[in-house]
Amino acid sequence: MSVTAARGFLASGVAVGIKESGAPDLALVVNRGPSRAAAGVFTSNRVQAAPVRWSRRALADGRLSAVVLNSGGANACTGPGGAGDTRTMAEHTARQTDLAADEVAVCSTGLIGVRLPMDRVTAGIATAADQLSPEGGEDAAVAIKTTDSAHKTAVAAGDGWTVGGMAKGAGMLAPGLATMLVVLTTDADAGAEVLDAALREAVRTTFDRVDSDGCMSTNDTVLLLASGASGVVPDPTRFTAAVHAVCQDLARQLVADAEGASKEIEVAVVGAASEADAVEVGRSVARNNLLKCALHGEDPNWGRVLSAIGTTSAVFDPDLLDVAINGVWVCRDGAEGEPRDKVDLSDRRITVTVDLRSGDSRAVVWTNDLTAEYVHENSAYSS
Amino acid sequence: MSVTAARGFLASGVAVGIKESGAPDLALVVNRGPSRAAAGVFTSNRVQAAPVRWSRRALADGRLSAVVLNSGGANACTGPGGAGDTRTMAEHTARQTDLAADEVAVCSTGLIGVRLPMDRVTAGIATAADQLSPEGGEDAAVAIKTTDSAHKTAVAAGDGWTVGGMAKGAGMLAPGLATMLVVLTTDADAGAEVLDAALREAVRTTFDRVDSDGCMSTNDTVLLLASGASGVVPDPTRFTAAVHAVCQDLARQLVADAEGASKEIEVAVVGAASEADAVEVGRSVARNNLLKCALHGEDPNWGRVLSAIGTTSAVFDPDLLDVAINGVWVCRDGAEGEPRDKVDLSDRRITVTVDLRSGDSRAVVWTNDLTAEYVHENSAYSS
């Protein structure tokens, strides 16, 4: 399924030796058209990897014909040499697929600051091009894995059209390996503006609300390519809903697979004066290391939630804050509420609800617990 | 030495049964004058513990005669009942020491959201008052410990006057127990305005630059009390320098004793367009969990430094960033510099230097590594 669920797309995933492990590490996605419309969202980190800089330019005209992706190296902070490597990847891909290099987006993921083994990459692109197939979506999804324990794909069906996609990442903002990469495809006949509007709306409330460890990557990229092969012009509302559904599904898979995590935590903020307030409070709670440790230990430590809320600029009265953990209102009016013993934290999924009692807006942010395994994975990786 | 190094002060520290362990948990500091001038700095968290709210009001006139401190409970998020408990602590202290309650500051530290056992606290205040002594500074410093592995004191001598102090906290912004508490005393004859100016300048570049885990407490309090007992009016510059020296000493002790830490990390930002830029970058680097894990694993992962810099609004060009780890410039011009193998991270102290190459301003932020022990201590504490 994955990126080849929609008609008009070919994909492949191969092992070309970028990873020392010999695991698959290079993927191609090619749009056979008739349309080449595309949209993209990139990391807001000001230190951006060479492939991010390249893909942003390639997308400037709202068109993409192919994406080449590699795991095993982020090609970030690699200077002019790294920029040249990205250009070479686009050019080789274009040559192998009879396209122009400026129609090819490039995505890389892995360790920052290390150049790619370009002889293997260019040879690998030829192999990947040979293996392009309408059934290649799964192979592509496997080839972009880094610390992911499973490959991640999702599909949503519309009225005669389909949206499918693949993602890699162990928590969006948790990239020990620097990156969340997502490629979405559709055979709907939608122009670049419709794609862009749908993608931005979907990302805003899905990938942008995942905050696994507060660390923003240099490589995060989400692309949406449309082939128009269904011949159907989608209703914009239904199309946006489908893109949102696929993004939501993939985002939850990222949280579920975050590095070293033992809990998936949903922070739901309600009663906010504005959605911005709700998101600010949600992020602050989701990033609080002390709370994340407490929830790891199955300790419903609501004091740490209040402590995190207090660092924000959101509208609230400290003496009118309510907090529920897994539905038990352990904090009422900014003080002790129902007995903490009533909270059962044994399940993997935990919900923390904050009622700011200042309005009608709400937002949800997803995160994970902080574990010794997280420390181990992220202290052992590059050595 | 501690808070009784300066003349005119009595102190005591006793075990009154707030802590189940039976360890000392209540301290008194009394200023015998002739002056009662004082200054204070409090947490900027908007969720503030009852003792913080009380002490802020008590200090409004620039005078304090005593401080009562307890460990074993933060009295934060405890509602109107908790506010009443703080008032009772001040009133009992005032009665035992022939003072007015509004001259008594209150500091509490420990778990958030739990009421104090007030029968034990009030009985304990009487015991502590009985034991007040000009040699009681060490006992007071011991009685305010929570997860601190050692009590923390420091002293600086001026021209005929002395500044001394005590601190508790396992990293300023790392309070598993919600709090850094600091009480400084001096026998210099300085008015409230001089004290306030000296304290704010000292705190700004010491306690405010310690960022152990990015979590801001509901109880953080730094107080400076002057007895004037030396009869010497200090030179303001020398006085500020002495207060700064004591704060710096205590701040370093906090970092050295942060929960579960195995490394003390100094993030030095130079070449910044402004001090604010330097602090923003320093904090962002100091709060990056991925970097803190890498340094724990003695991995000079400079890519994570750049990733953290990129999330700030500071003035810099991503292609003109230099980063040194323990003096080795592993990143030059935003890309790989000297070989990472040259970096020796075996010592407990690590320095990360960031050169933004955008100006002449600089700042230092101190933090710790992120360890499995931090996770353990903070997931096990309140359960």
The CATH class of the largest domain in chain A turns out to be Alpha Beta
CATH-defined architecture of the largest domain in chain A = 4-Layer Sandwich
For the termini of chain A, the CA-CA separation is 36 Å
Our count of domains of chain A comes out at: 2
Biggest sheet of chain A, open or closed, and with what strands and sense?
6 strands, mixed
The whole-number mean of residue pLDDT values of chain A reads 92
Radius of gyration of chain A: 21 Å
Beta percentage of chain A is: 15-25%
The CATH H-level superfamily of the largest domain in chain A is L-amino peptidase D-ALA esterase/amidase
**How are the strands ordered across the major sheet of chain A?**
13-12-11-14-10-15
- Most extensive chain contact? A-B, 69 and 68 residues
Form type of chain A: globular
- What is the share of helical residues of chain A? 25-40%
Quaternary arrangement of the chains shown? homodimer
CATH topology of the largest domain in chain A: L-amino peptidase D-ALA esterase/amidase
Helical segment count of chain A: 10
